[in-house]
Specification:
Helix content: 40-55%
Structural class: alpha/beta
Largest sheet: 5 strands, parallel
CATH topology of the largest domain: Rossmann fold
Distance between the termini: 79 Å
Strand order of the largest sheet: 2-1-3-4-5
Radius of gyration: 30 Å
Number of domains: 3
CATH architecture of the largest domain: 3-Layer(aba) Sandwich
Number of helices: 20
CATH class of the largest domain: Alpha Beta
Length: about 500
């Protein structure tokens, strides 16, 4: 296959030598431009589709190689770029790799080194393109509303609203607790709309340092402030034609709220340090785990911006509101993580299912996903057991759930001082019987932290697991427990 390589170099004589090497040794086509701005113009135009790789001189006069990279990567993020450096420009090579270059070669390297670099970059590019095509062929489920798992009425209502709004450009505000899948919902709306082929750019407003919010969202000019070594586009220009997803929108500083309001009203942004405004065409989907209406009342969020963002509000229900979907989600996560971990896990035990169903899941689907992932890693059999969910059991045993599962002395739990050496002046109990009671008591004392219990008691984790599972089996049924002669049984059991 004949590839087309764009060679960007101001040293025309040396560039012709490189062209000859590429023609003779690789049989690829070349196109030469002598400055960075011409390269940007070509690579951001409709003709860019004919370029398969860029060989870029890092030390161009005027618009240098780093600026070229920063300009083209938002437009052509998958286009492989190899930078050429002098022996004293290794620091620039590192900066270029950070800016998106796939490799670098030095100008005095032998032709064989240049050939290896170009062939390797093109090979990886072809593989990545094939993988992208495979993902696109499965896009129907991976990026649409089909990816949202659930049969509960609240989820069906959420999906129905999302489908209605997907084909328009109306601003959407997703409201719900952390971990309820707001970004998944935003991606589904984007994927099923008329901007599906354009970028989807997600921004976590709560994770950006306050002094960088404006620059990251709207971009900045070179030299606009201390440390602004290169010009940047900003998230809104990266998303031009597509969708910007602003997560945790309530965290935006008040001065940035004013600038965002202008984007929504006029479709214009003002990069930091720029004297001119720039037009952008983006759809804005925002999300919050706060009640923005209350933030408006408290004058922490602009009222005019709130009404602009919340034209079409959609609630993402908590897992507590859709408990019927719990085991559907668990099954889905087990399948995904079992494949990733190369395990053959078919489901969960009845005891583990009872525990998962009774827990309130304050972290919602994100917490459930992490818990199942951890359980799959811990699992030794073909079913997830109680012992594979140590954090959930610990939370239940600490009373962190909405139900009170704590054992007390009235219900028959053991304290360190209540462990009997013998029963009503009868013969002494065996050491194994007493050991079990000690383990149960220690598990309660250390709040279910198995590693700490095993270390303090000087026993193996396998012994601990055996006894711990017996205790939790009883906890999940909320039944009082007696311990007689080392045997655990339910006091109300017939």
């Amino acid at each position: 296959m004949s590839y087309n390589i764009l060679l960007v170099d101001d040293d025309v004589a040396q560039a012709h030598v490189i062209e000859q090497i590429i023609h003779d040794k690789m049989h690829y086509k070349t196109q030469l431009v002598e400055n960075g701005q011409d390269a940007i113009d070509i690579l951001t135009s409709k003709n860019a589709s004919g370029v398969d790789l860029v060989l870029l001189d890092i030390g161009l006069p005027g618009v240098d190689g780093i600026e070229v990279l920063n300009a083209i990567k938002p437009v052509k993020p998958n286009l492989p770029v190899i930078v050429r450096t002098g022996y004293d420009d290794l620091d620039l090579a590192v900066d270029a790799m950070k800016a998106g270059a796939v490799d670098f070669v030095q100008k005095m390297d032998p032709p064989e080194k240049l050939k290896r670099s170009i062939d390797g970059a093109l090979r990886r590019h072809v593989l990545n393109s094939e993988m992208s095509m495979m993902k696109e062929s499965r896009k129907g489920r991976g990026a649409s509303f089909d990816a949202i798992i659930g049969e509960s009425p609240s989820i069906k209502e959420m999906i129905a609203l999302g489908k209605k709004v997907a084909q328009s450009d109306i601003p959407v505000l997703l409201e719900g607790e952390s971990g309820t899948g707001k970004e998944l919902m935003a991606r589904a709306i984007h994927a099923c709309g008329n901007r599906a082929e354009k970028p989807f750019i997600a921004v976590n407003c709560g994770a950006i340092p306050e002094n960088l919010v404006e620059s990251i969202l709207f971009g900045h000019e070179k030299g606009a402030f201390t440390g602004a070594v290169y010009k940047t586009f900003g998230k809104f220009r990266e998303a031009d034609g597509g969708t910007v997803f602003l997560d945790e929108i309530g965290e935006l500083p008040s001065d940035i709220q004013v600038k965002l309001l202008r984007v929504l009203q006029d479709g214009e942004i003002d990069p930091v340090g720029s004297k001119t405004s720039l037009k952008v065409d983006v759809r804005v989907i925002s999300a919050t785990n706060r009640l923005l209406s209350e933030e408006v009342k408290g004058e922490k969020f602009r009222e005019d911006l709130y009404y602009r963002l919340s034209v079409f509000p959609i609630n993402t229900p908590s897992l507590r509101q859709r408990k019927g979907d719990l085991m559907l989600l668990v099954k889905h996560f087990i399948q995904s993580f079992s494949a990733a971990e190369k395990k053959n896990i078919s489901g969960v035990s009845k005891e583990a299912e009872a525990l998962l169903s009774q827990y309130s899941w304050p972290g919602n689907i994100r917490q459930l996903k992490n818990a199942v992932f951890r359980a799959v890693v811990l699992a030794e059999g073909d079913e997830l057991q109680l012992g594979d969910f140590p954090q959930i059991v610990s939370a239940v045993n600490n009373g962190e759930d909405e139900s009170d599962y704590l054992f007390d002395d009235e219900n028959g739990s053991l304290s360190a001082n209540s462990i009997l050496m013998n029963e009503q002046n009868e013969d002494y109990r065996t050491l194994s019987e007493i050991e079990r009671d000690v383990i149960m008591s220690a598990l309660e004392f250390y709040n279910g932290h198995m590693s700490k219990v095993a270390k303090k008691l000087g026993i193996g984790r396998s012994t601990l697991y055996l006894n711990w599972k017996s205790l939790i089996f009883l906890i999940t049924r909320k039944q009082p427990v007696n311990f007689l002669l080392g045997e655990t049984y339910c006091a109300n059991q017939s």
